[in-house]
């Protein structure tokens, strides 16, 4: 539950945001940042789909004067990323639990398999081509390109009096298009990933969820996030980010931060920076810790990732070599 509004005191005025965890019944305050420390801000609303909180006002106004005059301003809007504080809408389930378990059973028992995915160690995983086409947009696009190329090749073959004609190819294929991916063949796809990562990816395609212990392993989650980003699988990316948020721990924070940096998941980066600092800086007094956290988040928002990496390395007492620019 989120409660937000204007806070007025003799020595301090601000727009405050408080969050109540309904499971632990504990309150926590969200720091809006420097953007709303000055100005006149009175109204806010929640944007559930974007996991954002919007604050409306005037950045150049005076909070006390506008409050006394009951003046509301709508000139500017400040956007608070709630996901960076662990507050967000979990991704929706596309299938119920029974259907998810049935999909995993079909993958394990190789039901209606007519396609293979070959891993980087030449191990093969049998699967259904129809399921891949329905739930993997990149695969469907490459299949259409492959079918188009095959059709054009057939049309260029010389004809003879004994030629009977081939049956029509299933599906509608555009007339022109780019060259298909060379890793794709009629019966297989060469995926440059280890066997566990490929199996976890197939488990998602069959269940549209992350159910198995393999899928929730930290290393597997990191690789799934990279695959979801590269192949633009939005639902898988949302599921992996949700699993990473739930698996907050000191041992996985640095690794998750690195993969979040590669995949441009800014909210996940900030969340793990805050967690890391809260765990590593317990010896600091509150004011020093708050100031340090503000500086770190500011550098992260400005994409000064080299500074963040250097800070992490120093805290872990690793050897750091600064390269001159």
3D structure, described in words:
The chain contains 11 helices and 9 strands. Helix 2 packs across helix 5, helix 6 packs antiparallel against helix 7 and helix 9 runs antiparallel to helix 10. The protein is elongated. It has 3 domains: 84 residues, no CATH class; 130 residues, Potassium Channel Kv1.1, Chain A (2-Layer Sandwich); 63 residues, no CATH class. With 325 residues, the chain is α+β, with helices and mostly antiparallel strands. Strand 7 and strand 8 form a beta hairpin. The C terminus is likely disordered. The strands form 3 sheets. Strands 1-2-3 form a 3-stranded antiparallel β-sheet, with no helix packed on it. A 3-stranded antiparallel β-sheet has the order 4-5-6. The longest helix is centred in the middle third of the chain and has 19 residues.
Give the N-terminus to C-terminus distance in angstroms.
47 Å
Strand order of the largest sheet: 1-2-3
The helicity comes to 40-55%
Q: Could you state the CATH homologous superfamily of the largest domain?
A: Potassium Channel Kv1.1, Chain A
| Assembly form of the protein | single chain
């Amino acid at each position: 539950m989120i409660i937000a509004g204007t806070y007025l005191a003799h020595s301090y005025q601000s727009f405050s945001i408080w969050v109540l965890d309904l499971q632990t019944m504990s309150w926590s305050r969200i720091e809006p940042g420097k953007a709303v420390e000055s100005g006149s801000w009175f109204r806010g609303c929640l944007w559930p789909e974007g996991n954002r909180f919007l604050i409306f006002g005037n950045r150049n106004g005076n909070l006390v004067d506008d409050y006394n005059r009951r003046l509301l301003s709508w000139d500017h809007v400040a956007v608070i990323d709630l996901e960076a504080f662990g507050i967000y809408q979990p991704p929706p389930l596309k299938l119920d639990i029974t259907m998810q378990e049935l999909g995993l059973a079909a993958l394990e028992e190789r039901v209606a398999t007519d396609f293979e995915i070959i891993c980087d160690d030449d191990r093969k995983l049998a699967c259904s081509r129809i399921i891949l086409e329905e739930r993997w947009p990149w695969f469907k696009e490459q299949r259409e390109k492959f079918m188009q190329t095959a059709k054009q090749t057939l049309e260029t073959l010389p004809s003879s009096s004994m030629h009977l004609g081939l049956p029509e190819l299933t599906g509608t294929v555009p007339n022109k298009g780019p060259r298909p991916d060379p890793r794709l063949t009629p019966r297989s796809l060469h995926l440059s990933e280890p066997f566990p990562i490929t199996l976890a990816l197939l488990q998602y395609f069959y269940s549209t969820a992350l159910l198995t212990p393999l899928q929730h392993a930290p290393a597997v989650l990191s690789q799934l996030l990279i695959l979801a980003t590269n192949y633009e699988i939005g639902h898988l990316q949302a599921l992996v980010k949700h699993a990473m948020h739930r698996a907050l721990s000191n041992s996985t924070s640095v690794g998750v931060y690195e993969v979040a940096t590669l995949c441009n998941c800014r909210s996940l980066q900030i969340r793990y920076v805050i967690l890391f600092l809260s765990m590593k800086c317990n010896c600091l007094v509150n004011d020093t810790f708050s100031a340090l956290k503000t500086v770190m988040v500011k550098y992260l928002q400005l994409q000064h990732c080299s500074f963040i990496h250097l800070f992490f390395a120093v805290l872990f007492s690793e050897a750091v070599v600064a390269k001159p620019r």
